[in-house]
Amino acid sequence: MTTSPQRTEQATGVIKQNKLEPLAVRLEKLGLVRDWDFVLHLPLRYENETRILPIGSLTTGASVQIEGTVTDQRFTHTNRGQQFIATITDQSGEITARFIHYYPSVQKQLAVGQRVRLYGEPREGFYGGLEFVHPRIKSGKTLDEALPQALTPIYPAGEGIQQRWLRKRIDRALLDLDIVDPVPKAILERFGLPGLREAITYLHNPPSNADVAGLQEHTCPAWRRLIFDELLAQQITLREMRAIASHRHSPKLDASSKPLTEQFLKTLPFTLTQAQVRVTAEISADLMTDRPMHRLVQGDVGSGKTIVAALAALQAIESGYQATLMAPTEILAEQHFNKIAAWLTPLGIRVTWLTGRLKASEKNKALEEITSGQAQLVIGTHAIIQDRVQFPKLGLAIVDEQHRFGVSQRLALRTQNKTDVAPHLLMLSATPIPRTLAMSYLADLDVSIIDELPPGRTPVVTKTVRLERKDNVLSVVLGSVAEGHQVYWVCPLIEESDKLDLTPATTCRDELQRRLPNLTIGLVHGAMPPAEKEAVMSDFVKGITQVLVATTVIEVGVDVPNASLMVIEHAERFGLAQLHQLRGRVGRGATQSACILLFGEDITPNGWERLKILRDFTDGFEIARRDLQMRGPGEFLGERQSGMPLLKFADLDRDETLLASAQIVATEWLRTDRARALTHAQRWFNTTSEFLAA
Ligand code: ADP
Ligand code: MG
Predict the structure, then answer these.
(1) Rounded to the nearest whole angstrom, what is the distance from the C-alpha of residue 270 to the centroid of ligand 1?
(2) Is the Cβ–Cβ distance between 138 and 75 less than 8 Å?
(3) Does 417 have pLDDT greater than 70?
């Protein structure tokens, strides 16, 4: 095969090899160090080299193996460079092999008169007949070896790591390693799973009559066994993390009377939904014990998580402790600060603002308030978890948009008080995390769900419209304003960065103003000074401004029930979760609201898929589930920051029942045979020990 990623292409098509790092380094990059790592390096797919087909019988569409004699060899010149072509003949017919890129040795291997064996997928040739492009070649002595009895595994491999070498190395590891099955027979029987050695051997060397579909789709018993072990290791790791955390103590936030909470609830212009009451009670009960709370509150956009967080903070404050609320972005944190300070300051509570962007003097003042214990609630960005900030009496840490933070940050928060006393931890997720994902990656958390929206909301109608038809959309805007409603117009993201949003936002507003000269149009973006931003928002809230042109600053926290239309320009450039959040800004009043997704003509298939999902679904959980399917858990959870070993083999949608089984066994093992459980986890994730030590 000649498809290594770092080749240097020359006009002739001949590949010049780059200098490679030492083999051990390259292997380590693939996670291949211990014998165990090789044994658990499972094939991506298989090739069937157990048969040789007559060339005359070949058709397109499947990979095959042929054997014959080279009867011709030549070069052709195309505008992409020189290609090498050989003809191979057997008694039944002939086929060409085309090489667009090739090592010089290929010419020798395919010299006229040579006997060769080729493996590849035939396709219609350029001049009629069939051809292979870049087939795999065997020649010389290897042809004397008997045909393999098993399907040939193809492994994930980096540059300069030969499949043949990898296969041998894995076979040796299989021989050397004493594969003791950690899972007792009784459990295997209970879940209908094969033994470990049996499963591993089958996956590395499946018999020629193996269930190929089951192998490819990871649904055969052998795959199920390995997936089970992987999920088991994950569940053990997370449960152990949790157990370690709960060895520590948290303060009992047991306010005997709650005058401030009562006063706060009285001043609210609405009553809590049943879901908010239930979740608040769950949190309150956790806070009253000295076992550290570790709870995630999930609720769709607009389900009212902020009040639930404020009530939890109040319980801490009324018990004489400090609380923090941390948000992943400056803008989000600022929205929370404005909203919550407006709620709590009238009750005589000191709410302090802390971000990395504060001027030194402001920052020192904030830090002083915190260390002196004056600050009762601290709201800000992750500046809060930086070392310098020492809370004398931190009782509760709240994290908004928890899925944007990683496991390691979760741990950092838990260890914030540098004593044995850990704060209780409450996490909020505005992007609902699908149940299976929560069950696996978030198994170290308790989960509360706000599954009810405040009353009086009508679902938003969503339409996708080509950007060329912007004129029609402008008349919809006019119509909406004529009915006395307000409109959000979200400007396109530029170069995938919402930091550089100044120019496009201004241009966007100017264009709209030119085309809708009779409307009052406001503009808000992230780079505006806070005072100016506040003034613009306040005009919109009061209804003075009819159309608000905005960047994604309005993604969170903005709440204007009279706004009933949202237009998102170049919606295909936004992520699903972000679009769902943006759309959540409308549909907050009793009137029918609409969201128009304007898309450009260069929309990608993926981009179009996202818009379709948003058009067809309003339920945040359903949207999140599809988002997860499209992106995979790594990106969905923010793998890079999390550092948590990701699942390599399990697919949470497909393997939900295996996950449930793994949860049962993990709990049982940690109770009855903790050493066995930890050994199993360590074997799977080399990195596990760091987590367990944290
Ligand atoms: P999210 O869950 O997206 O963070 P918010 O906490 O911002 O939602 O709440 C969305 C809006 O709903 C806010 O204007 C909030 O004041 C309002 N709200 C919250 N709870 C209720 C309720 N029980 N009844 C009516 N409105 C509510
Ligand atoms: Mg929120």
Answers:
(1) 10
(2) no
(3) no
